Amino acid sequence: MWALSQPWRPGTRPLLADTPARLLVALACVAAASRLLAGRTPLAAVAMRVVGVAAGHGALLATALAWAGCGRGSGVVAIVLLAVAAAAATVRPAGALAYLSVPLWIAWLARRRRLAALGLAGPVSRRALLAAVALGAVLGGHLLVSASLTLGVHIRPDGVAAVLAALAYDAGANVLAAECFFRGALFNRAQRRWSRAGGLALATAAYVARYLVDPLLPKSVEWLVGATFYLTLLGAGNCWLFWWSGSLVPGLVGALIFFTGYRLLGTGP
Amino acid sequence: MTRGLAAAAMLTFPGVAALIALTGSDPASALRHAYLIPVVALALALGGAGGTLGAGAALVLHAPVVLAEIERAGLTPETREGLVTLAVVAGVGALVGVLTTRARRQRTRYETLLAIQRALTGATPLDAALGRLRAALIECLRVADVGLVVRDGERLVVAGGDRMAEGSLAAGVLAAGSSVFVPDAGGGCRPRRVVATLLLVAGKHIGVLAVERVGELGGDERVALEALGAHVAVALEHARLTSRQRRFAEELERSVAGATRHLEELDRAKSAFVAIASHELRTPLTALQGFSEILAARSQAPDEVARIAGIMRAEAARLGRIVSDLLDLSRIERGLAPTLHRAPLAVEPVLAATADLFRRGAKSAIVVDCAPALPRVDADPDALERILSNLVSNAVKYSPPGSEVRLGARRAGAMVEVEVRDRGVGIADGALARIFEPYYRAAETSTVRGTGLGLAVVKALVEAHGGAIHVESARGAGTCVTFSVPAVP
C-alpha cells in the first residue's frame, strides 16, 4: 500500500506550477501590439484576427501542454500552427482546413504518450463516447430548439461551406484548446488538489468566463444568459465525463457536437 | 435495482416533456409536477449526484417552455408557476439526493462497525485479526486499499504491506501524532486520495489506519474515518485485552493443573514416606530392643558386650539422624532455615573423619583428595558433618563393590567447593531435577534403604550456609555432587 511503502513529503504542488509564464507574456505583448495597430494599416484587421486566434487558443493549448510536461517547444509549435491556420482561413474558407493540423500535432504527441496527464492516452470507453454524444446532442438540440423558440434564430443561411469552416475552427482551435486546458489541465489538476466538486466548479467557471469575454459572442443579454446556461452544463458534463472515463476524448466529442448545433445558428468566425 | 430505477427515471423525462408539449406547452400545465417523479427516483437511486442530474434534466426540458412564454408574454401567473416549479424540482432533487447520500453513509458506518466487531471476534493472533479487519474495511468502505499498523509491545504489526517504510505517510502520522489527508498520491487518471488517521486509546497512539480510494474522499467522509479510527482502536484494544485475558486464564488453568499434579504426587510421596519412615525407624528400634534384651537376659563375654554395644550405638546414631532429618524437614516445610552455629572449620579433617566413618563395612574404597592450602570454612560443624554423611552414604550405597568414592575440596573464589564423586549406577535424567525434593525417591532406588529426606535436608543446609549444590550424573558412569560453603575471609 502506498501509505506504508512509498516516501511521502508534506505539502502539495502549486496549482499553477509549470505555467509557461514567459511565453504567455510574449503572446499578450503580441496581442496588445496588434490591438494598438488595429485600424492604422490595411492588413491590421486580418493580422489582429490571426494574432487573436493564435494568442487566445495558443495560450490555452501551450499552457495545457506545459502542465502535461511536454515542454515549451510543443506549445510554440501549436501556436505557430494556429497562426498559420488562422491566416489560411482568412484567405479563403477552405483554408480553415489548416486548423486540422493542430489536432494532428496533438494526436502525434498523444501517440508518443506525452499527453497522458491530459487524458490523451490509452483506449477510450465506448460507453463514455456514447454518453458524450448524448450530452452534446441533447445540449446542441436543446440550444437549437430553445433559440428558435425564444430568440427567433434560424438555421444559418450561408451554406455548408461556412458551417464546415466554423467546425474546422472548433475542432482545431476552439474546442481543442478549451478542452485541453479547462478539462485536461485545469480540472484535472484542481480535482487532484482539492475535490472533484471544487475542480469542476473552478474549471467550469473559468470555461464560462472564457466564452463570455470572447469577442465573437454576441453581447446581448439573451446570448450571454444562454451562453452561461449551456456552457455551464457542457463544462460540468465534460468534467464529469473526464472524471468518469479518465479520457479527454469524450469531452472533445461532446463539445464538438454541441458547437455543431451552435454553428448552425449562424454564429461564429 | 438501483440501475433499473435510474434508467426508468431517465426514460420518464422525455415522456413528461412530450406530454407537456402535446397538451399545448403550457408552463403551468399540471403535468409539470410529474417531473418530480423521475427526479426523486434518480435521487433515491444515485444519491446527491442523481438528484442534481434529475433536477438538471427537468430544468433543461421545462425551461424552454417557461422561457419562451416569458419571452412572448412576460411574467404572467402561468410563467411564475412554471418558474416556481423549476425551483421546487431543483430543490427537491438536491435535498432528496443529499439526504439519500447521508442515509447511505450512515448505514455504511453502522455496517462497518459491525464488520469491525466481527473481524476482531475470536482468539486469533493480532496479525491474523488485522488481516481480517483490513479485508472487512476494504469491503465496507468500498476503497482501493486499507493499511493498518498497530504497536504490539516493542514490535509493529502491519496489515496491507510487508512493513512500514521509513519516511512513509504512516510513519509520518505515527511520529507527528496527527491525521493527514493526501489529496492525490499520484498515478492513474483519477486522483488517489489517501487519509491516514491515528488509532488512539486513552490518549495513547497504538497505531495508524490508512485508507486509499481512487476517486472522492470528501471532508465528512474523512471526519467519519477519524471516528472510525477511534472505534478500530477501541475494538483492537478490547480484542487485545480479551486475548490476554484468555491467555492468562489458560496459563492459570495450566498452573493449577500442574500444582494439583504436584500436590497429588506429594501426597503419594508422603504416604510412601510414612511407610518407609516407619520401617526405617522400626529397624534400629528392633535392633536396640533385641540387643538390650540379650544383654538383660544373660551375662555376655566382654568382647561380645563390646560388639553388641557397638551395634547398638550405630543403630542409635542412625535413629538420631532420621529424627534430625525429620526435624529439619519440618522446619523447611514451615519456611524456616535450619538453625546453624557457625564457626571457622578446616574442611580436610571433616572429610577424613567422614571417610573413616564409612570405610568400616563399606565395599567401596573411599579416597580423600583435597587441594593444598585450603582455607577454613565458615560453617556449622554438625551441619557439615550431616551434609557429608548423607552424600557419602548415598555414594557408598549406590556404588558397586570394589569401586571408588572420592571426596575432594578446592577453593573457588570466596567459597570452598566440596565434591563427592562415585562410579555407581548414576541417576536417570528424569529423576535428576527432582532428587532434592522432599520425599522423592527415584523408582530404581526402591530396593535401597532410605527415607527420601536426605538430599532435601542437604540442600537446605547448604543454602542456609549461603552456598549452592548441584549434581552431574550419567547412567552407568556415576554421580558427582558438588556443594559450596563460604571460606573464612
Can you walk me through this structure?
The complex is a heterodimer of chains A (269) and B (489). In chain A, 72% of the residues lie in helices and 0% in strands. With 269 residues, chain A is mainly α. In chain A, helix 3 runs antiparallel to helix 4 and helix 8 packs antiparallel against helix 9. The longest helix of chain A is centred in the middle third of the chain and has 35 residues. The radius of gyration of chain A is 19 Å and the shape is globular. Chain B is α+β, with helices and mostly antiparallel strands. In chain B, 57% of the residues lie in helices and 17% in strands. Chain B has twelve helices and twelve strands. Chains A and B meet through helix 1, helix 6, helix 7 and helix 9 of A and helix 3, strand 1, helix 6 and strand 4 of B.
Q: Point out poorly predicted stretches of chain B.
A: none
- Look at the helices and sheets of chain A and give the structural class: mainly alpha
Work out the number of β strands of chain A.
0
Shape of chain B: rod-shaped
Order of helices and strands of chain B: HHHHHEEHEEEHHEHEEHEEHHEE
Query: How would you describe the shape of chain A?
Result: globular
- Give the termini separation of chain A: 52 Å
**Mean pLDDT of chain B, as a whole number?**
87
Global Rg of chain A: 19 Å
State mean pLDDT of chain A (0 to 100 scale): 89
